[in-house]
Amino acid sequence: MKQHANNKGIRLKNWSTGEVLYDTLHSTSNVKALNCRSTICTANHMNTIKEVKPIRTGDAVLDDAKKFIDEFYASIEKFGSAEHLNRWSEIKTQIEESDGYIMKTEELKYGATVAWRNAPRCPGRIQWKRLQVFDSRHVGTAKEMFEAICTHLQYATNVGILGSAITVFPPRQKGRCDFRVWNSALFGYACYKQPDGTLLGDPFNLELTQAAQKLGWAGKGTRQDILPLIVQAGDGEAHFFDIPEDLVFEVPLRHPKYEKFTDLGYKWFALPGVSCLKLDCGGLEFSAIPFSGWYSDSEIGSRDLGDKHRFNLAPVMAGIMGGIKGSNWRDLAVSQLIVAVAHSFRTTGNHNVYIADVLHGYQSLLPAWFQAIGAATFIKKHVKHWKSGLDIIGYSQGGLIARAVIEAFPDIPVSTFISLSSPQCGQYGDEFLRIIFPHFVKKTVYKVFYSSLGQTTSVANYWKDPHHTKEYLEYSEFLPYLNNELESPDSWIYKQSIMKLKRMVLIGGPDDGVITPWQSSHFECFDESENVIDLHQSDLFVHDRLGLKFLDETGRLIIHSEAGVSHHQWHSNYDIFLKCILPYLD
Asked: Catalytic pick from 299, 369, 386, 503?
């Protein structure tokens, strides 16, 4: 990257593509600049300063609050609206009266997700829009804090299907102690100082272990004892709580080549949870915000296991490898530790979990069949160790792409297909159209979509205009074939693939706001009068063109109608996950 000052911001050039962008975010930052030079980058250094600054008051809060609330309303395209101005008036009054204000939940969620997006040291921040924010500002005791963290862990660990999450406790406030989580990470291994001065466990946690012992905690004294959580609420008193065993997901570490390493019996946590962070948002400081995302294999292998100030397994691995020598012996040993971590995380337990991060952003507008081929290629390349079949979850358009993979690639054995708010019977609605093509309306867009040019976009591939069925069947290259509305040489294969499923779960609800009609998520669509045709009365079901009737009669078609969930909440709603998804995962 090349950088130099510019009135537009910092100019960033990608030398591999020639693309030039201008970053203006730095100009509004109030973070102290890093001490970087032309040959040295210090962005990877941890901030170890433990200075506790006074709580902000008056104009300091007011200025940051104004910038934040302006940014928030700009993000929802309501900047300068009456709602925006009224909200600012409310905030200003609260700050003048109490040096603080109560942030609305949607404002807090926006601030937390954007904070993750702007965290330069976190490679997982590409998923910032999917962050689950647990608003726990209502808690008042240490026990309530612990219970909220347990809810966080249950969501984020999710029997191995990890999800990113953050729990936000009350902000700093005059007249009370700060809410704090003493642990630097939600999970950690204790460290015991032995009579001969040696350390047993993770040296990084020696100080925390001793603090826990002073509070009354007694560990087992083994090499990898799980530390309790130590939390303090507004009264400033610290309390420790043991994490329930069912919330602790540990991965046994095994090396694919060196069995002696496997015999050592080491393990590591599946969930990386950081709990020593502060969220500085809108003039408010949230001093307790446990956060969890995903590990990188090198993070565990190099830092946690290989570092000489941690478990220091690099010399052990070097010995197992045959006593490697030379100046780079540690690098070679650490590389094999990373291999062990990657192998262990991919093969542990009965579940291998993959996120098919392909064809995102504007690539999602590519033709649907093209996307299905890409998804199938990903699955065949990366998911090689299935035993009794895969569970596939498809959200929104992804549900259609996933079903296309199931139908068109019968060599990929799928056990359960879960469709989460997906337009399985097509889409016909202005709200959805406005998101992708703001200049079109649903009554006339068929002129574009039902053409050779229009069919080069995925949205057009499943656009189902009930007033132009003839054109839909003539031009649409995807949905009529996928649903066997039109005969093709592969029609029987498509039906057989659906009939082989152990179960199909269809999830949708009346408050979706995007999928139109929302019942399309249940294979129901509009007739010419824009009345919804009940699935059981539809031609698709009555003549069992796709095998849905067969699944229904054999008890393998499960339909969930859930109210109160908007389209952009389905994939992050924990109640939906517990009720509509988890029970069906093998």
From this structure: 299
Q: Where residue 1 falls among pLDDT bands split at 50, 70, 90?
A: very low
Q: Starting from the edge strand earliest in sequence, which strands make up the sheet with 132-135, in order?
A: 132-135, 165-168, 291-292, 273-274
Rounded distance between C-alpha atoms, residue 289 and residue 279, angstroms = 7
First to last CA, the chain: 46
Query: Which parts of 144-234 are beta strand (E)?
Result: 165-168, 180-181, 191-193, 199-201, 229-232
* Rounded-to-integer distance, Cα 348 and Cα 454, Å: 45
Q: Any catalytic annotation for residue 477?
A: no
Compute φ and ψ for 168, nearest 5 degrees. -110, 120
Q: Which of 128, 182, 294, 518 is catalytic?
A: 294
**Any bridge partners for residue 229, and if so which?**
241
Provide the pairing of β-strand 199-201 with 503-508.
unpaired
Percent of the chain with pLDDT over 70: 87
Q: Which residue has the higher pLDDT, 177 or 1?
A: 177
Active-site residue flag, 122: yes
pLDDT tens, residue by residue, 45-95: 545 445 678 888 888 899 999 999 999 999 988 999 999 999 999 999 999
Indicate the domain borders of the chain: 302-345, 361-584
Q: How far apart are CA 66 and CA 234, in angstroms?
A: 27
User: Which stretches within 321-356 are classed as H helix?
Assistant: 329-347
What pLDDT, on the 0 to 100 scale, is given for residue 53? 81
Q: Could you tell me if 419 and 394 are in contact, meaning their C-beta atoms sit under 8 angstroms apart?
A: yes
Q: Are 270 and 250 in contact (CB under 8 A)?
A: yes
- The hierarchical CATH code for the domain 361-584 is 3.40.50.1820
Residue burial 376-400, b: 16+ Cβ < 10 Å; e: rest: bebbeeeeeeeeeebbbbbbbbbbb
Report the C-alpha gap between 286 and 307 in whole angstroms. Answer: 32
Give pLDDT, residue 366.
Answer: 84
Residue 149 tokens read as 């963290």
- How far apart CA 540 and CA 519 sit, in angstroms, is 14
Q: So what's the pLDDT on residue 48?
A: 43
pLDDT score for 83 = 95
Distance (Å, whole) CA 458 – CA 470: 19
In a 3-state reduction of DSSP, which class is residue 516? coil
Is residue 294 part of the annotated active site? The answer reads yes
**CA dihedral sign, ordered 146, 147, 153, 156:** negative
Strand partners, 281: 284
The total of other beta-carbon atoms located within 10 Å of residue 141's CB is 14
Q: What is the mean pLDDT of residues 239-260?
A: 92
Radius of gyration of the chain (CA): 27
Task: Quote the strand ranges of 178-271, DSSP E.
Answer: 180-181, 191-193, 199-201, 229-232, 238-241, 250-252, 267-269
Q: How confident is the model at residue 432 (pLDDT cuts 50, 70, 90)?
A: low
Residue 125 falls in the annotated catalytic set: yes
Q: Which secondary-structure segment (H or E) carries 281? A: strand 279-281
- Annotated catalytic residue, options 11, 122, 130, 250: 122
Q: 558-585, pLDDT tens digit by residue?
A: 999 999 999 988 887 888 988 999 889 8
Residue 4: what pLDDT? 42
Catalytic residue among 87, 117, 125, 303: 125
